[in-house]
Amino acid sequence: MLMILFMTFSLLFLPKKYKSLNWLNSLVSLFMLTLMMLTKMTLWGPMNITINQWLYMDSLSFPLIALTLWISALMILASFSIKIKKTSEKFFLNLILFLNFTLLSTFSMSNILLFYISFESTLIPTLFIILGWGYQPERLQAGFYLMIYTILASLPLLISITLMFKNNNTLLFSFNFMTTPSTFMLSIWWFITILAFFTKMPLYTVHLWLPKAHVEAPVAGSMILAGLLLKLGSYGLLRLSYLFSYANKLMTPFISSIAMWGAIITSMICLRQPDMKSLIAYSSIGHMALLTAGIMTNSLWGWNSAIMMMIAHGLCSSALFALANMQYEATLTRNIYLTKGMLALFPVMTMLWFIMSSGNMSAPPSMNLIAEIILITSIMSLNMLLAPILATTAFLSAAYSLYLYTTTQHGTPSAFISAMQLFMPRNYLTIIMHLLPLFLMSLKMELFTLN
Predict the structure, then answer these.
(1) Alpha-carbon distance 106 to 100, whole Å?
(2) Cβ proximity of 296 and 256 under 8 Å
């Protein structure tokens, strides 16, 4: 798989007369890789495959690798305006493929130190995408927030990895198990380990970098952030939880409380957002908070539902950012109150907005519904007192999804918006390619269960 990715990367260095084939080659290669992964998962199910002493794939990494390849291909499809405007399109493709390589490496590493290196390497192409193709001068501040938050939070993780090696004389995931004489010290050790993952997800209180990065990023940056980079945090949390199983149980009430209240607060913030991308970004924080609480239940039920939610949220939020970009290209504004009446001008786009908004609020038959039902069940097994908070979160999720849809699509169109803007078929294809797996894979949810 990595070999095919390298071959795709080499195609970017073809002579100039073949330059128009670069985007097509990259798209076809990524789609074919995704289909290979899905075919393997469907026919044989997710199984453990050890490639060598550093690389392996299991039922946790298989779905995320497939999601990485799929979203990356759709990023290229959604960013054809870069090719049309000829704004360093070759460098852009290089960044997408390098980001692909770092993500695949992160999801495949069996060595904790190599996992950390790959985990941090994803920041470099993401930062270049935001700074190079962002919309406004404020993208410099967004890039600064992104780097400071994630790097400062990940330094304690590096310290923790060195302590793991000192404790076990190995850095392999399968041979590490953390013990200390003091329960308090073990809890502190676990907290500094997962702080990097909470910042990447992000958990409420360490989330301020995400809305800034989303608002200033181009459509490709927003899609990769929402669809994949947030999943790195939950993947790392799942991968390391069993190493600190006892400390994880001790920290569960504290972290679950922060996650649940964070979900309510960010959902309320969504109802006051005038910017479409900012609203979708804050909704991602709310969904990831629910996912965090599910992981912290330390149950197979909670972990399986967390994987389902990762895939469902990755597809749904990526599609919403692509739709927001489509609307921005037509109206040149992301303000919710200025882009009214899209139904009268672009009825097909309105239908896609409705379907994806329904998915975002976990309406049937999307994967989100099944994942959220199982998540809520597993979280309530911790404490039934969480039921009112979960109910409020579900209500607010539906409220801001309907608010986003009705405010932008209904009403009288603003005077400055013209129906002359024609959407290319690739715009609709991008959303449909998000929509199909989101709804069809709800028929085969056993693909996303740990074994």
Answers:
(1) 10
(2) yes
Q: Which two tokens stand for residue 369?
A: 């519904």
Question: What is the C-alpha separation between 310 and 288, in angstroms, rounded?
Answer: 8
Burial class (CB in 10 A: 0-12, 13-18, 19+), 235: buried
Which DSSP state fits 49?
E
The pair of structure tokens assigned to 103 is 């993500």
| CB-CB contact of 72 with 30 (8 Å) | yes
Q: List CB contacts of 417: < 8 A, sequence separation 6 or more.
A: 330, 331, 339, 341, 345
Neighbours of 433 (CB within 10 A): 20
Per the listing, tokens 């004389």 go with: 169
Alpha-carbon torsion 136, 141, 146, 151, what sign? positive
Q: Answer yes or no: are the C-beta atoms of 448 and 63 closer than 8 Å.
A: yes
Contacts of 342 (CB under 8 A, 6+ apart): 327, 349, 350, 353, 408, 409, 413
Strands 56-57 and 49-50: antiparallel
Residue pLDDT, tens place only, 246-293: 788 888 889 999 999 999 999 999 999 999 999 999 999 999 999 999
Place of tokens 């499809």: 77
Report residue 288 as tokens. Answer: 């990831």
Q: Is 212:181 a contact under the CB 8 Å cutoff?
A: no
Lookup: tokens for 421: 């803007």
Distance CA 429, CA 150 (A): 34
Q: What is the pLDDT of residues 335-389, one digit of tens each?
A: 898 888 888 888 889 999 999 999 999 888 889 999 999 999 999 988 888 899 9
Structure tokens at 69: 């390849």
Judged by DSSP in three states, 397 sits in helix
Looking at the chain, the number of H-run helices and the number of E-run strands are 20, 2
